[in-house]
Amino acid sequence: MIRTQLQLTEQQARALKREAGQRGVSIAEIIRQALDQYLSQGPSDVRRQRAMRSIGGYRSGRSNVSEDHDAHLADAFKA
Q1: d(CA 27, CA 6)
Q2: Which residues 6+ apart lie within 8 Å of 12 measured at CB?
Q3: What does the alpha-carbon distance between residue 3 and residue 75 come to, in Å, rounded to a whole number?
């Protein structure tokens, strides 16, 4: 393994210590597991998560978007 150093906020350090204690593993193991999970996500997973977070965050000003979404998309992508 390669030793590295990182800085955490006090809140992050407390949460990591608590989680490690509950799981019975080291803080380093928690960080390695989280990093493995993050790195295993493909670009499409990241885009999908970003898209899901944006749902409901915008207003089109149109009242029928959910019913006529195909027509609205076709209009938006006309060349």
Answers
A1: 12
A2: none
A3: 54
